[in-house]
Every structure is written in structure tokens, then in C-alpha cells.
Amino acid sequence: MKTKIFLSLVLLSFQSFAADTFTVASEFSSVSFATIKKQFVVEPAAINGLTGNLDSSGKFNVSVPVGNINTGVSIRDDRVSGLFFNAAYYPTVNITGQFDLSGLKQDITKVTVPAAVSFHGNSKTFNFPVIVTKTKNAITVSSHTPVIVQASDFGIPAENIANLAATVGGLALSDKVPLTVNLVFKK
Hints:
Strand order of the largest sheet: 1-4-5-7-8-9-10-12
Number of helices: 3
Distance between the termini: 33 Å
Order of helices and strands: HEEEEEEHEEEEEHE
Radius of gyration: 19 Å
Number of strands: 12
Strand content: 35-45%
Shape: elongated
């Protein structure tokens, strides 16, 4: 009898969890990457101010405002945002996808989530290896392994990276970056 009551409570709590829509908590969410210059100099960057949601079926969309880049150096922020991303014309990276929320049997699960990333009029699907943590009022999704992203994946012109490199004395800049995501979805 106790087992039946326990199972009923678990099912009811899961159904109420599954019926909810979660919204990105911008203050806790970011996309991070590191630029590489001269083959050995690594400079971290994060983009904050993300928005989006996750519905009960596991469908999600996240908007990443590239103008909100933070490298820790304001002139570098302006250069990356303006010269590389061309944020005046392409202000947002959009990420969409779906994963099986009901298939997450534990509160903390390691899973690979396919997501379509759209920017500069191009889209590419990446498989993001993440750790998903569920609580009563939130779901967090955090990378456990970076994904390598290349400028050409989105048709970002090679001249954009050349223009950025020119601002630092023509130093060689990699067009590939390791990228991680940290998303908090709250009720």
C-alpha cells in the first residue's frame, strides 16, 4: 500500500513538473568561449543577457545577444562585437532544439542535446554534451565538454577576422573557438 501511495505521489509530482514552462534566468545564464591569438594566447569571453524558454515537451529556444559580449576589456568587447560579429546587422544568435524531459529519470543527468544554432543567416546543428539538473522550480543545463565552433560554420566572412586581427597588430587569430553553455530555466 505504501508503495502505491509513493508511486502515485511521484507520478503526480512529475506530471505537475512536466506541465510547466520554464524561462531563461538571464542573470544566471551565459554562453562562454575563448579566443586564441598567436597560437598560445587564450582570452576568455562570455555573452550574457540570454532570453528564451523551455516547454514541458523539452522544446527550447534561446536568444544570445552578441552585443552583450564581455571579455573583461571594453575595447576588445567593442571590436569583437562590431568587427567580428557585426552585431549592428546580426545582433542575435538563436539556438533551438528539443530533448526528452520525461526521459530524464534522475535529478542530475548527463546527456547530449542536439541544437540548431542560427547566426548570420546560416544554421548548423551541434551536439552539446551537457549536464541537466532538475529541481522543483528550475532546470539547469551546463556543458560538461566544450563544442568547437568555427566562424565559417555561419558564413562569417574571413575579412571580419582579418579586420579584428588588424586591430592587434595583425596577430594571427584562430577562427575556431571552444564554446560552452550555462543555462538556468526557472518557472
